[in-house]
Amino acid sequence: MRRIFAVALGILTAIGGFVDIGDLVTNAIVGSRFGLGLAWVVLVGVVGICVYAQMSGRVAAVSGRATFEIIRERLGPRAGLANLGASFLINLLTVTAEIGGVALSLQLATSVDPLLWVPVAAFGVWIVIWRARFKLLENVTGLLGLTLIVFAVALFMLSPDWGSLAGQALQPGPPADEQMSTYWFYAIALFGAAMTPYEVFFFSSGAIEEKWTEKDLATSRANVLVGFPLGGVLSIAIAGCAAVVLLPASIDVTSLSQVVLPVAEAGGKLALSFAIVGILAATFGAALETTLSSGYTLAQYFGWSWGKFRRPAKAARFHLAMIICIFVAMAILATGVDPILVTEYSVVFSAVALPLTYLPILIIANDREYMGDKVNGRAMNLIGSVYLVVILVAAIAAIPLLIVTGAGS
Amino acid sequence: MNDPHRPAGRVLDAHLHILDRQVLDRDGVPVTTVDDLELDGIEPGAPIEPDAPPPTVAAILTGPDLATRIFGGRPPESRHIRIPWKLVSEVGTTIRLGITGYILDATWTERWVSEHIIARIPGGRHDPE
Amino acid sequence: MILSDLLGSEVVDAAGHHLGALIDVRLEISGAPHQLLAETVVVGILVSPHSRTSTWGFERRGANAPAIIARPQHWLHRGMFLIAWTDVAQIDEGRVTLRDGYERRDPVLASTAHPH
Amino acid sequence: MPESRRGRSKRAQALAPLLALTIVLSGCSSPASTFDQAIGQGVAAVETARIAVDQQLDDRIFPTTTITALGDARRELVDASTSVSETDTSTESDAALRTDLLEALALGVTGVNRARDAMGGTGSLEDAVPALERASDALEALEERATEAEGARR
């Protein structure tokens, strides 16, 4: 019973934890411009994050080594540092976007200027990281984030023309008024939103925080293989809602208030309150995860003592680094930059940085000195190799597409 | 003793198995990463006598060695932070030391940040709730 | 001497012909016993004729999975060999000279499977 | 934050100088494409405001969310007007389009402002509906005109 509960909890938190500001915004934008024409990318991204998280979770559980320790060990200090720089900056952008997302969702509930909410959100993130136990932090935000299921419910309540939605999904390609390059630009953004590296840093370091062993591998596999795909379904539902309500009114999504309009349309105030709580929890949870991830990456590269299972004074540089990150994120938001825009950039750059973080995991998952007889099987290596190519292509194409499309405008 | 065909002990490659790995202390607390290794018994520019004893690993280097390994150059002799190799108890996927890391030079920044900043913030010395 | 000063050095034979780059140093934990671990001695150097980059361990364990990484690695480091330390005549900055009649040995590491 | 945040293309330029190059490369700097983009931005904002107002009249949405949505819509409209006013034109028809476009966007701002005022207790929300409808019609007409002009240019 206890075990079933643990698995169920893990799956639920994985669903809630999958969706963050990046998924919310990118899916809503894509839905409002392309309908479900890019739903296949979510599918590709979800399988990718399953493969990636499953491998790094297994490496962490079997060898006790977290992802960034392995990146440095296998790629050496130079490539490792380039990787750290890129991952850390993207992480910082994501922290900024998530804290901004918390402020924006509080604005939806209060209509108070988000700039005033930023310090509150930032302090909230810090105090939870400083004081709360890892398990608690993971479970509460994950479960509250589950209220985002309201987007799936709303999609049903809108009773859309399922045939035309399916048509959009099954015949991928840009609509007449959009360019091919814009279509592919958003494909990469969506891929980056689904496969953000911070999720993997957090997942593998979390395995060590919770002292996983080989016995926990089955649980971890269930979390990943059930939780992430359901999170992907949620992402498609967000895009679907935008496709049904916003696309016909030619509303290109540029703000969070537009993302929740379809939910209010379908289910009124009750549904809207679920959506706002869900967005708040998902962004707050992701703000915690990304802040922790910036601490994890730095500490693991430099060999500092890290982890929430230690008291802060025993992982001093780790905590100091996170405090600095939160301050920098606040400073960026204080310039008045739109968090939605920061989000759009962070998901694209996530796709750019992905190959260097993915490659070492694929290598170590095959290294018997680390993994004993728990190395990748043939099937896993086949799909892992396919994704290495997919990730490389997406990373190489991202920047040129960003320039050609003017960031999708 | 050093015929590679008949190894007398465990054989490993310095770059592959030691460089850039985590150094943990007796209690499993991270101390640093292996930024470089110091080898004793190699005299650059001098011919090696056929019967000279082989070089040995003297110390793990950390601190400024990371920067010089990445950007080139060499830190002054006094700036090296050394962890003598004789403190190492085990070489696996990590390098384990046989002592507590808290007293080593390699952890002085951790101690400084801990004492001067983190421990002064309320709750810094307590376990999370 | 620092390990990273050795890594990447050019390796030449006694006549000065280029043989490749030093990409790793082989150690053996076998010297005089210490309190915790026996002394770790240098027993040889690994030389790759075509590349100075790291092998990510693929050459030395007969590792071949996943093929998408292993194949290019095997190709990049084709013809890699091990030189016993007793065959090394002199170390200079960025250059290692071997003795006359040095022997190219098999670089594959005996399995040291040892998860944590 | 709402007043200082700007519309998509403007914000992009502010975020990274690289994007200036970007926009030149993608040909966004010609009057026609600036107008196209402004029309799209205006339509999206006015339609958002209309949905939010409808939902408010139906009592399906929290007033705080309506106010936020209206604020976001106004920001987009103002931003679109700014980028249109700052565009130089080289033909009579482009200049005329600019004038009409600015007028239509101003109609949108008027409608949104009327709705915001009503949310604050001044006037009634129903009054905002016709104003927003007029803006929507005007923008739609301009959209057709811009498409025709593009056809003529080709």
TrEMBL record, chain A:
Its main location: membrane. One of its GO terms (biological process) is iron ion transmembrane transport. It is found in: Membrane. The chain crosses the membrane at residues 33-53, 81-108, 114-130, 142-163, 183-203, 224-251, 271-299, 320-341, 347-365, 386-407. GO terms for molecular function: cadmium ion transmembrane transporter activity; manganese ion transmembrane transporter activity. GO terms for cellular component: plasma membrane. Keywords: Membrane, Transmembrane, Transmembrane helix, Transport. It holds the Pfam family Nramp. It is a multi-pass membrane protein. This is Divalent metal cation transporter.
From TrEMBL, chain B:
It comes from the Bacteria. This is Amidohydrolase.
TrEMBL record, chain C:
This is PRC-barrel domain containing protein. It comes from the Bacteria.
From TrEMBL, chain D:
Residues 1-34 form the signal peptide. It comes from the Bacteria. The keyword Signal applies. Keywords: Signal. This is DUF4398 domain-containing protein. It comes from Agromyces albus.
